[in-house]
Amino acid sequence: MAKSVAVIGASRSRAKFGNKAVRAYWAAGWIVYPVNPHAAEIEGLPVYARLEEIPDRIDRVSVYLPPELSEQILDEIEAVEPEDVYFNPGAAAPALVRKARARGIRAHLACSIVAVGQRPDAFPED
Fold it and tell me: Which residue from 40, 42, 38 is spatially nearest to 13, judged by alpha carbons?
């Protein structure tokens, strides 16, 4: 069975990494759940306003939010018990990753697109 990922901060703009991540995970064969309270559909996929609305198990969470917003969703992330969480460059600071790890969240400060074996520049902005 394919693994699933929730992309928090998924974007309709193909120039943004929150959109490139949706495409990268989809291309790698993952089940993708875009999360954005201001969109209904991204890249043809239904969008969820919050993690708790996703009806299935979430194996990974990939975060594309500013650090101050990322910190506000730690409770939400902890509640869905993902295998791991990627706080992407620009979306986190080392202090946030330490806070997440202190809660028992397997957190990474790294590019989740690269972690899934893709390259961000492989997903054009047009």
Answer: 42
Strand bridging mode 4-8 / 31-35: parallel
Q: Give the integer Cα–Cα distance in Å for 27 and 106.
A: 24
pLDDT (0 to 100) of residue 85: 97
Q: Considering its fold, how many domains does the chain have in total?
A: 1
How many angstroms separate the CA atoms of 71 and 8, rounded? 12
| pLDDT tens readout for residues 60-114 | 999 999 888 888 899 999 999 999 999 998 877 888 899 999 999 999 999 999 9
Let me know: does 3 contact 26? Beta carbons within 8 Å.
Answer: no
Determine contact, residues 25/49, Cβ cutoff 8 Å: no
How many C-beta neighbours within 10 Å does residue 46 have? 11
Q: Quickly count helices (H) and strands (E) in the chain.
A: 5, 7
The pTM score is: 0.95
Structural domain for 61, as ranges: 4-122
CATH assignment of the domain containing 114: 3.40.50.720
